[in-house]
Write a structure and sequence with these properties.
Number of strands of chain A: 5
CATH architecture of the largest domain in chain A: 2-Layer Sandwich
Low-confidence stretches of chain B: none
Strand order of the largest sheet of chain A: 3-2-1-4-5
Shape of chain B: globular
Radius of gyration of chain B: 17 Å
Number of domains of chain A: 2
CATH topology of chain B: Rossmann fold
CATH topology of the largest domain in chain A: Nonspecific Lipid-transfer Protein, Chain A
Oligomer: heterodimer
Helix content of chain A: 40-55%
Largest sheet of chain A: 5 strands, mixed
Number of helices of chain A: 8
């Protein structure tokens, strides 16, 4: 579910104009975090981003440790991570930098996202809604819709991560 | 008999299936929404909301809802795309399309397009839509592979296909309950509420004949989609396949 939450968050920010996908349009980026057994592929096309668990042909492969992954999502400078040898990059470094810039613009609250894996789904869902409400205080309809979406997700997908993992391929 | 296919548990000529399915939906169109609510205990609304939530559809996008029937998804997509976008609801069945038209007009949505079309021969140009959806429709299509190829064709690069459909339950106990419910309760409720037990017997049978999650995923990939993933909902009673033309 991490990839879905990440995809939804990024696309919401793209739609709101908070972040831009211009430099990434048409590119695929693979990101590996071996410590978390996590491999994601970011597919940027048609002004939106898909975050997949699948392995696709990519323009750049980024491998990094858990700490660097969290730092990257918080907007850390990619070159600092490279200097500290926390990141390995194979392929187009400019594309990797563009992804790093995207995360920096988005300032994703990764603790909130991965709290899902600790079972704290309700906190995560509510956290998303609260942050959305703080960010867009005038968009009450959007908040209500977001709450409905999140509530639907909670209702139709059981709250055990085992089930989530089993249900996604 | 020409090329055979299934209609529920019956083997029928492939050329006859479309007419038989038409008969089912002509019969159930008037009570379709009511029966969906009753039979799924309202869960179909949550499954559809989840589907639209995963679509990444935004303002200004073009969406095609294939086999859109009474318009549940089209209504939700219209909210997402706004006035600058476009939603087209298509269905092969005129009676279902008429129900969809009524539902949308009742909600004041007059700018959704309606097209009576066979999913196997979509009358749209290549690379037209940002998103194509088909909810509880694919299992009724005779040539599913052909329909998937058509949906791939009309999608823009970077567009996504969403297939919401009954699938294979992934829990033994739930499966036993679900089988009992499907074959003993659903047809009876169909007879009681819609006065049409036979059509709802077909519903239960057609679900069992529909490809399982992995098979449908492979079919989407074979149709040309770059990747496809699926999400089991309600223990696999329903699965949402999301395929992208990257």
């Amino acid at each position: 579910m991490l990839h879905l939450a990440l995809e939804k968050t990024l696309n919401l920010l793209i739609a709101n104009g908070t972040v831009s996908l211009d430099k990434l349009e048409g590119h695929n980026i693979a990101l590996h975090v071996p410590e978390l057994s996590l491999s994601l592929c970011f597919v940027c096309s048609n002004a939106r981003i898909y975050v997949l668990k699948a392995q696709l042909h990519s323009d750049v492969d980024i491998t990094l440790n858990k700490t660097a992954f969290l730092s990257l999502l918080r907007g850390a400078e990619l070159r600092d991570l490279i200097t500290n040898e926390e990141v390995l990059i194979h392929g187009n470094v400019k594309v990797a930098q563009a992804l790093s810039d995207l995360f920096a613009e988005a300032s994703i609250d990764i603790e909130e996202l991965i709290s899902h894996h600790t079972g704290d789904i309700v906190a995560r869902q509510l956290g998303k809604v609260i942050r959305f409400a703080k960010k867009y205080p005038n968009n009450l309809i959007g908040i209500v819709e977001t709450m409905k979406d999140d509530f639907s997700t909670l209702l139709i997908t059981p709250s055990h991560s085992r089930f989530f993992n089993k249900g996604e391929k | 008999m020409g090329k055979a296919t299934h209609f529920g548990y019956q083997q029928v000529d492939a050329a006859d299936k479309q007419g038989l399915v038409k008969g089912v939906f002509d019969s159930v169109a008037n009570n379709y929404d009511l029966m969906n609510d009753v039979l799924s205990f309202g869960a179909h609304r949550l499954w559809k909301r989840y589907t639209v939530g995963l679509s990444n559809v935004g303002k200004g996008d073009k969406v095609l809802d294939v086999a859109g029937g009474t318009g549940d998804l089209a209504i939700k997509f219209r909210e997402k795309v706004g006035e600058t976008g476009q939603v087209i609801l298509s269905d092969i069945n005129g009676a279902m399309l008429e129900e969809g038209r009524k539902n949308l007009i009742d909600r004041g949505l007059v700018d959704v397009g309606f097209v009576q079309a066979n999913a196997e021969f979509l009358p749209f140009k290549d690379n037209t839509f940002d998103c194509v959806s088909i909810a509880f429709g694919l299992r009724n299509v005779t040539n599913k592979e052909g329909a998937l190829k058509q949906m791939h064709r009309v999608l823009k690069k970077g567009g996504c296909l969403l297939v919401l459909e009954f699938s294979k339950v992934d829990n033994v106990m739930l499966g036993k309950f679900y089988d009992f419910y499907s074959f003993n309760v659903i047809p009876k409720l169909g007879g009681l509420i819609a006065n049409d037990e036979e059509s709802y017997q077909y519903l239960a049978e057609s679900i069992r004949k529909h490809p399982d999650q992995e098979t449908l995923k492979q079919m989407a990939l074979d149709a040309g989609f770059t990747f496809c993933e699926y999400h089991n909902l309600s223990g696999g009673i329903v699965a949402l396949h999301k395929a992208v033309k990257a």
